[in-house]
Amino acid sequence: MEIVNPTKKYHQSHNWVYSCQYHVVWCPKYRRQVLVPPIDQRLKELFLEKQDAYGYEVIEMEVMPDHVHLILDVNPQVGIKSVVSKIKGYTSRTIREEFPFMKKKLPTLWTRSKFVSTVGAVSLAVVKEYIQEQKGR
Fold first, then answer.
1. Distance CA 85, CA 112 (A)
2. Which residues have a catalytic role annotated?
3. Model-level pTM?
């Protein structure tokens, strides 16, 4: 069995070929509903600004009043934990500088918590089957 997906994007470096996507969700401190216009649009711009510098690509994003959803393609040499920490730090600092009233509303913009789940084009069952079939070759 061959695992092929023409819609999946693969990245390549010296000795790596990878495709690592993650669904990431996090909230403002106290789950306050502060991510409203124009802050929501500015956050989207900030998420796109640091893609190359931080080693990720935004596949999809949505900013709700009380949480953020991102689907990120992340370089495994950088790692999802590092990427999310950098994004949260950069966006918190920038939003609070550009919108000073936010400093009065919240001691910090984001909670320390986050949700991360892998996103794959192939199900776990398909990968298991593929690995098991390799034994017979």
1. 9
2. 130
3. 0.84
